[in-house]
């Protein structure tokens, strides 16, 4: 019999975890408490307990070429940024293509995961699940936790003085449609992606909309330089190299300069004081400019039907408050000693393995919040983890600390897991790190000798996930072709009217710039 692996959840991470287990000859069983796959991306009109919730207008923040699983490109006719229904469609196609459904048990909740009595020698886990009111205990050789971190909302009303607010208030998780804001004065607390989306939607029907933000945010539009997707321009090996090798203040200045090219954030009350993850929204600046949305500092105090902001003497009347204040990371089915989450920090080696287990047979996937697409990250984590489980992995030895708390801190600093602050780790650096563990990191210098066109495209073009299928385990024959045709798939759904005699200049421009900058690449050790 093969090694039995329990996968918790059938969302993005759970599906790719199941697929990677099968690739390695392991035997996965994926437990999904709802009746269908898709996790966060499966829209339901009603809110289900313990499940993330989506509003119907949600569109992906990362483009299809950068979000694809590395051996399964999106269909070329799909739009560049995906409405949630199409992203769910893609996940279903992925499950179909790799026959994942037969390994998923729907309507099955994971109740608890405990170490098996002889864990120290076998590394096994007792997994208790419940389906149809009946509980079952199974023993598994390893566990992949893929339940995400969008289930338990953080509703911090009690944190504010004067919590006698009489109006309506709710967490963004409960939001579905803007009708609830019709003619009302709305306050949105928090400025993440959901907060800005909801404020923009509300402002079309509300009497007034205010966003309260303590720390501000950089704003990016999906439509970036020359109309290309933001992540295909910013997430390249060249850009990553520049960002990671520049001194901190210079790196800050460069990012500041880039984001302020669209509009001056200070003039719009948005300029952040520290480096946080940017927020993606195409409409907010024009909505501020046209007076539909006002930006205010953090909330000082709530009154019966008004609010007082820091550094503002006047009270502002409000009818509805939407708390876009994120989520509490929790694993109700795990003992606290397995994954300790303190002050929103967790001691996880490379964000994946709990640092203090005697055997590396439990992994947490998809918990990282990178400045880039989560799907390739979750997939790379799953590829690495499934090989660690299988015992094939020799390049990386997981630490087995004597003093778990002490080592946990060290590891937290090394690849620290902080949910409030931007991760210091570059999306690309993190992907490369895990890829190098399994021998799947592409060698740009090596390719320069054998396939210069591909090498230049990889270094100067977008770091699309197909790069991690060019070599090593799980090598995919279609990877090279997928990389060289990525811009075709981007232009296909938008170039629906082509004037006579026009052509795409971007890839050819890349080659010219590539040759000029190749020297720099070699100097930096690529």
TrEMBL record:
Enzyme class at the top of the EC tree: oxidoreductase
Coiled-coil region list: none
* Transmembrane annotation, as ranges: 506-525
What UniProt keywords are attached to this protein's entry?
Endoplasmic reticulum, FAD, Flavoprotein, Membrane, Monooxygenase, NADP, Oxidoreductase, Transmembrane, Transmembrane helix
As one GO molecular function, the record gives:
NADP binding
> Which cofactor is essential here?
FAD
Where is it mainly found?
endoplasmic reticulum
| Reactions catalysed | N,N-dimethylaniline + NADPH + O2 + H(+) = N,N-dimethylaniline N-oxide + NADP(+) + H2O; trimethylamine + NADPH + O2 = trimethylamine N-oxide + NADP(+) + H2O; hypotaurine + NADH + O2 + H(+) = taurine + NAD(+) + H2O; hypotaurine + NADPH + O2 + H(+) = taurine + NADP(+) + H2O
* Cell location: Endoplasmic reticulum membrane
Any one GO CC term of the record? endoplasmic reticulum membrane
Q: What is its EC number?
A: 1.14.13.148, 1.14.13.8
The record gives the membrane topology as: Single-pass membrane protein
This molecule's function is given as: Broad spectrum monooxygenase that catalyzes the oxygenation of a wide variety of nitrogen- and sulfur-containing compounds including xenobiotics. Catalyzes the S-oxygenation of hypotaurine to produce taurine, an organic osmolyte involved in cell volume regulation as well as a variety of cytoprotective and developmental processes.
Q: Which family does it belong to?
A: Belongs to the FMO family.
Q: What is this protein called?
A: Flavin-containing monooxygenase 1
């Amino acid at each position: 019999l093969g090694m039995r692996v329990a996968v918790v959840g059938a969302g993005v991470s759970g599906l790719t975890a199941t697929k990677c287990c099968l690739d390695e000859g392991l035997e996965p069983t994926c437990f999904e408490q709802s009746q269908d796959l898709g996790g966060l991306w499966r829209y339901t009109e009603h809110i289900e307990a313990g499940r993330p919730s989506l509003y119907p207008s949600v569109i992906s923040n990362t483009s299809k070429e950068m979000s694809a699983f590395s051996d399964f490109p999106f269909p070329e006719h799909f739009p560049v940024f995906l409405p949630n229904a199409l992203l769910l469609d893609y996940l279903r196609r992925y499950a179909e293509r790799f026959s994942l459904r037969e390994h998923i048990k729907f309507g099955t909740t994971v109740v608890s995961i405990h170490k098996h009595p002889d864990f120290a020698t076998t590394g096994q886990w007792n997994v208790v699940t419940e389906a149809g009111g009946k509980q079952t205990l199974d023993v598994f050789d390893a566990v992949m936790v893929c339940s995400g971190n969008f289930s338990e909302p953080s509703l911090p009303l009690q944190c504010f003085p004067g919590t006698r607010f009489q109006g309506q208030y709710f967490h963004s998780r409960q939001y579905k449609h803007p009708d609830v804001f019709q003619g009302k004065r709305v306050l949105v607390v928090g400025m993440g992606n959901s907060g800005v989306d909801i404020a923009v939607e509300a402002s079309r029907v509300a009497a007034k909309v205010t966003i309260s933000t303590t720390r501000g945010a950089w704003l990016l539009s999906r439509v970036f330089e020359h109309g290309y997707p933001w992540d295909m321009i910013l997430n390249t090996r060249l850009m990553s190299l520049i960002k990671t090798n520049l001194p901190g203040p210079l790196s800050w200045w460069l990012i500041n300069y880039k984001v302020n090219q669209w509009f001056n954030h200070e003039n719009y009350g948005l300029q952040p004081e520290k480096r946080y993850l940017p927020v993606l929204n195409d409409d907010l600046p024009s909505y501020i400019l046209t007076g539909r949305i006002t930006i205010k500092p953090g909330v000082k105090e709530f009154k019966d039907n008004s609010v007082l902001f820091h550094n503002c003497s006047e009270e502002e009347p409000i009818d509805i408050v939407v708390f876009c204040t994120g989520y509490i990371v929790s694993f109700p089915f795990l003992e606290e000693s397995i994954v300790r989450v303190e002050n929103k920090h967790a001691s996880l080696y490379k964000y994946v393995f709990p640092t203090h287990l005697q055997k590396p047979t439990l992994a947490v996937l998809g918990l990282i919040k990178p400045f880039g697409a989560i799907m390739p990250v979750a997939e790379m984590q799953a590829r690495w983890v499934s090989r660690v489980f299988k015992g094939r992995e020799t390049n990386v030895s997981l630490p087995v600390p004597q003093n778990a708390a002490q080592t946990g801190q060290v590891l937290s600093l090394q690849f620290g897991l902080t949910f409030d602050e931007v991760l210091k780790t570059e999306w690309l650096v993190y992907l490369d790190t895990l890829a190098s563990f399994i021998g799947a990191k592409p060698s740009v210098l090596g390719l320069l000798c054998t396939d210069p066109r591909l090498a230049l495209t990889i270094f100067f073009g977008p770091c699309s996930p197909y790069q991690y299928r060019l070599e090593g385990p799980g090598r995919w024959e279609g990877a090279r072709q997928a990389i060289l045709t990525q811009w075709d798939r981007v232009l296909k759904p938008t170039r629906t009217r082509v004037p006579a005699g026009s052509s795409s200049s971007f890839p050819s421009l890349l080659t010219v710039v590539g040759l000029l900058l190749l020297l720099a690449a070699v100097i930096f050790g690529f």
